[in-house]
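Encode chain A's predicted structure.
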Amino acid sequence: MTTQTEKPLILVICDYYLPGFESGGAMRTIVNMVDRLADEFRFRIVTRDHDGPLNRAPYDSVTISDWNRVGNADVYYLAEDKIGRSELERLITEVKPNAIYVNSFFSPLTIFTLMLRRFGKIPPVPIVLAPEGEFSAGALGIKSVKKKLYIRGAKLLKLLDKLIWKTASENEAADLKRVIGAIETVFVAPNLPPRMIDPNYDQAAKPEKHLGDARLVFLSRFMRKKNFNWLLEQLREVSGELTIDIYGPREEPDYWKETEELIEKLPKNITVHAKGPVPYQEVPKTLAKYHFFVLPTLGENFGHIFVEALAAGCPLIISDRTPWRDLEAKDIGWDMSLDEPSRWIAAINTCLAMEQDEYTQMSGNARRFAVDWLSDPEHEKANREMLRFAAGSN
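Encoded structure for chain A:
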């Protein structure tokens, strides 16, 4: 048990952590949680020794198979040949956490952790599981047979009994209950962004907006779930000079090959460039170089990149399968059904038809919305309450 003077100890077990940047929003959620809640909780993190699923080279700036101080957390980087139940059992037993936090339902690290608890190999520590959008219809539709078999097996083995579930929105909580069924404890706590994004933002530095042209940016892990190729198939009806730059690691080579084939068939008024991954610290100034942000995703439980894009003065052109809704009413973008491609074309044509004054107003609205959202204390409060509950459950 934790004494009154001791902070509760949270052991986070996740696939990727700093100094990496290619694995997307799930990692940023952990980084921001540690940064913002370290005044009340101690954090130790067990993670892989490399950056993302495509880059297997071990980090050269940390000590592998040992504890490293990284910001407000102690981080243990698992060598690839040490990823398994026996090493996790050793580390969990050594750390003696008040609670364990895992942030992917399908990660092998999560599966090993749940099996260790189920079969009594570790103390009965409360476990928080944040599925990070993995139960949305779009996400489950990819490799669906394999995922359905694991869900069924996890239920039969009672791996999911007495878990504390953490979802980022009411929609994700509904997805969770639809897939898993009756759940004893679930918290809705938005994923934590930084307290501020780009404090030196300058609206006047945004690119000029001329009638008949627009610069769009896609910045995300490039994979089938993000649905970019669907957008390419709609663009033939766009009227104007449209540029779309793609940033992010290409996680599915077959999907990227399909993308290249579609790009070759685009009309001359549409230009698409692939720019590659962007280090996290470079994201705000990269986004600020564009007029609008586009992501026709099949589903997101939160989407750090949406807050970052708004903070960079980029109104959003996104699907309605995220928590970020009613954007048009707020004059900060569009959230649209993928079943209505004509609305997407109309929105992009509206972007192309904008002149400077109208764009400056909309871009400024996006920045102000992000700043207000980031300053809302309720987001941090919900996460604190979730970890307090977990740490006090043993």
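The chain has a mean pLDDT of 94.
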